[in-house]
Amino acid sequence: AASVATGLWNDLPSAQREAFQTQFDCCGLLAPQATDTCPDNNNHSLPGCQSAIVQFLEKAFKRISIVALVLVAVQLGAVVFACILSASIRQAEEEEREREELLN
Question: What is the pTM of this model?
Answer without folding.
Answer: 0.63
